[in-house]
TrEMBL record:
Its cofactor is Mg(2+). Coiled coil: none annotated. This is Shikimate kinase. ATP binds at residues 14-19, 119. One of its GO terms (molecular function) is shikimate kinase activity. Monomer. Keywords: Amino-acid biosynthesis, Aromatic amino acid biosynthesis, ATP-binding, Cytoplasm, Kinase, Magnesium, Metal-binding, Nucleotide-binding, Transferase. Belongs to the shikimate kinase family. It is found in: Cytoplasm. Binds 1 Mg(2+) ion per subunit. It is an enzyme of class 2 (transferase). The gene is aroK. The keyword Lipid metabolism does not apply. The keyword Metal-binding applies. It comes from Microbulbifer echini.
Length: 168
């Protein structure tokens, strides 16, 4: 079998990592995993429950452990938006493939997602969405092998563009 590396999707909540990841895996005949699912299965709780029972830093710590130890050959890996807070986790994922940053403007994210307050984002309660957005951009850029601008693209267009970039 041809040695195909994995593809790791990073970006803000609402950027399309989970939605696009499944479509990409199907297109490339790769396996698919959403690391949010790995976390929930390991803990036996939803992400929102983990935050409610402890705090957002605990969720980030659990996420860091999960992505630092995951072995995911020939996968499309959809991460959670906070994965980039774990240097060890990102180093492990990067060793396994190409990291793609799905870049969306704050306005586009707000148009797509209406439940930012109840979505279980791993941030301090007092931190605004805009502040979190700004803080994370540098981290996403730091780890990205490929950056895909997703503003104004529908799912099919984003998928086509991504396939082109991966092949090019
Ligand atoms: N171009 C696009 N790419 C990805 N998702 C899109 C796009 N346009 C609209 N959406 C919608 O935005 C949402 C993205 O959510 P999701 O895939 O859960 O993102 P993430 O996993 O990055 O948080 C979905 O409801 C999806 O249908
Ligand atoms: O950005 C974040 O802080 C988070 C994003 C979520 O995943 P998505 O990015 O897939 O929404 C999930 O991991 C968790 O609720 C925390
Ligand atoms: Mg997701």
């Amino acid at each position: 079998m041809k040695k195909i590396k994995s593809i790791i999707l990073i970006g803000m909540p609402g950027a399309g990592k989970s939605t696009l990841g499944v479509l990409l895996a199907k297109e490339l005949a790769l396996d698919f995993i959403d690391t949010d699912v790995l976390i929930q299965a390991r803990e036996g709780k939803t992400l929102q429950e983990i935050i409610a029972d402890s705090d957002y830093l605990n969720l980030r710590a659990i996420e860091g452990e999960v992505i630092a130890t995951a072995q995911l050959p020939r996968h499309v890996v959809s991460t959670g938006g906070s994965a980039v807070y774990s240097a060890e986790g990102m180093a492990n994922l990067r060793e396994q493939g190409t990291v793609v940053f799905l870049q969306c403007s704050a306005d586009e994210l707000r148009r797509r997602i209406h439940n930012y307050e109840s979505r279980g984002i791993a941030k301090a309660p007092e931190q605004s969405f805009e502040d979190l957005f700004a803080e994370r951009q540098a981290l996403y850029r730091k780890y990205a092998d490929i950056t895909l601008s997703c503003d104004g693209l529908d799912l099919q267009q984003a998928l086509d563009e991504l396939l082109q970039r991966l092949q090019g």
